[in-house]
TrEMBL record:
Organism: Streptomyces huasconensis
Name by which UniProt lists this protein: Endonuclease/exonuclease/phosphatase family protein
Gene3D superfamilies the UniProt entry points to: Endonuclease/exonuclease/phosphatase (3.60.10.10)
Swiss-Prot/TrEMBL cofactor(s): Mg(2+); Mn(2+)
Coiled coil, from the record: none
Pfam families for this protein: Exo_endo_phos (PF03372)
Domain Endonuclease/exonuclease/phosphatase: 21-237
Domain of life: Bacteria
GO molecular function: endonuclease activity
Keywords for the protein's UniProt record, in alphabetical order: DNA damage, DNA repair, Endonuclease, Hydrolase, Magnesium, Metal-binding, Nuclease
InterPro entries to which the protein is assigned, alphabetical: Endo/exonu/phosph_ase_sf, Endo/exonuclease/phosphatase, TDP2-like
């Protein structure tokens, strides 16, 4: 399997190649060592986590995942009701904000974890999300996602998430009308993100604003160091890995 482009920063024009991983970790209830091995093998600059630990000693669990994955905690977790952002030391954190979304009675609280990260002269907005299982609430959250992404004030941004919707769904369609769907733009690796052996669905994705160049995006099955045994043991979702080129901010 051909790898995605490695993380780089061009000293001449200032653009940066950034590797973005989106991963639903099911509250780290499974094999955390296997989870960390998968993340490390993907060599991400940014990890948009969904279902991060939210309850007892959640900060300790988040720190453990960051440490064992060779990353640092940026934002989210319980403060965003599950979404979280981790990053490599290559990223300079400019600002963060966690948002709790309006809640429908009887359904789970949802939220967004957001950050603005700088890689040399390239600045990138990041949003991690896990949308509702309810169609109407999910669509409303999709609208709020686009509003929040615009409020970051960054022309270059990525969204990583578990959208609980397929590409033919109306919320997925809302997002792909406004943003680039990484897999549809530059497919790489495996498409479907449900657990191996489950019905084939693509409900996890990485999106990017139009000015970001998507170099490749998909599930890193077959990537050196990413073992099927670890993917099965780590959690009930498969990760989505994207490489994007971000122009310099002047």
């Amino acid at each position: 399997m051909q790898d995605l482009p490695d993380s780089t920063t061009d000293r001449d024009d200032g653009h940066a190649v950034v590797r973005v991983l989106s991963y639903n970790v099911r509250s780290m209830r499974d094999d955390v060592a296997a989870l960390a091995r998968v993340i490390r093998a993907c060599r991400p600059d940014i990890v948009c986590v969904q279902e991060a630990p939210r309850f007892f000693r959640w900060r300790k669990a988040a720190a453990r995942l960051a440490r064992t994955s060779g990353l640092v905690y940026v934002s989210g977790g319980a403060t965003a009701s599950g979404p979280m952002i981790l990053a490599s030391l290559r990223a300079h954190v400019e600002r963060t904000e966690d948002i709790l979304l309006p809640r429908t009675p009887g359904l789970h609280q949802r939220g967004f974890s957001t950050a603005v990260l700088r890689f040399g002269r390239a600045r990138l907005g990041v949003l991690s999300c896990h949308l509702s299982i309810d169609d109407q609430e999910r669509y409303t959250q999709g609208e709020l996602l686009l509003e929040r992404l615009s409020a970051l004030g960054e022309p270059h941004a990525v969204v990583g998430g578990d959208f609980n919707d397929r590409p033919d769904g109306r919320t997925f369609g809302l997002l792909s009308d406004a943003l680039q769907d990484g897999w549809a733009t530059r497919p790489w690796g495996r498409e479907h993100t449900t657990r191996l052996g489950d019905p084939l669905q693509r409900i996890d994705a990485v999106f990017a604003t139009p000015e970001v160049e998507v170099l490749g995006c998909g599930v890193p099955m077959g990537l050196p160091g990413v073992r099927e045994q670890d993917l099965r043991a780590a959690t009930d979702h498969l990760p989505v890995l994207a490489a994007v080129r971000v122009p310099a901010a002047y």
